Amino acid sequence: MHTKLIGMLILEPIIGSIVNAPFNTTLLNAAYQIWLEYEPETFPGSTKVNYYALFAFDATWTLIQSLQQLCSTYTNSSSPCISIVNNSFCFDRHFLNATSFFNTISSTEFLGVSGPVKFSTNVTDRIDGIYYVIRNTQPSANNIELVPVLQWSHSDNWKTYTQADVIIWPGNTLVPPTGFAGLEGIERSS
């Protein structure tokens, strides 16, 4: 039925626990307990929580940690460490301590629920705790399935997901396609 999808490769961001990287089990379990306490009907079970929920948790925790750090070092007691100008319209707000807050975020580093979280002033994304898996669309007994075939981490680069994984290419073959434009040796300009 979906045979034209066989051979497709799909890149997916994943959490550190999938590639045996460190992650904060204490924080993760505490978050699950809070979820179970306040919204048990929406909790899918610890093995079925969407990775993006864990990324969002770490992003929120980054903001909380950074605000706590910023406010603990703020010595001007005549005004609060958090001050927003033009707060009557959501698209025209201005955070007065934005530069200090950004610098605090850039120096934030912790072990999150998705893996290590670390930033840098010269990079616009996380610089640690970034992991990916490539899934291959393969035929199965009933239809098709997405099989993980490669995984990536900053420390290991690309490697096979398990030793038994093979990539099924378009046309349901083990032979990689030829005759396509390649990017080998081409550098991305900044």
Category by helix and strand content:
alpha+beta
Strand order of the largest sheet: 1-6-7-8
Q: What is the number of domains? A: 2
Percent in helix: 10-25%
Topology, number of strands? 8
What is the highest CATH level, the class of the largest domain?
Alpha Beta
What is the CATH fold-level name of the largest domain? Rossmann fold
Element-by-element helix/strand order = EHHEEHEEEEE
Output the number of helix runs.
3
Beta content: 15-25%
State Rg.
22 Å
C-alpha end-to-end distance: 43 Å
Average pLDDT taken over every residue: 86
Query: Main β-sheet, in a few words?
Result: 4 strands, antiparallel
Q: What general form does the structure show?
A: elongated
Question: Uncertain runs with pLDDT below 50, 5 residues or more?
Answer: none
CATH architecture of the largest domain: 3-Layer(aba) Sandwich
Name given to the CATH homologous superfamily of the largest domain: Response regulator
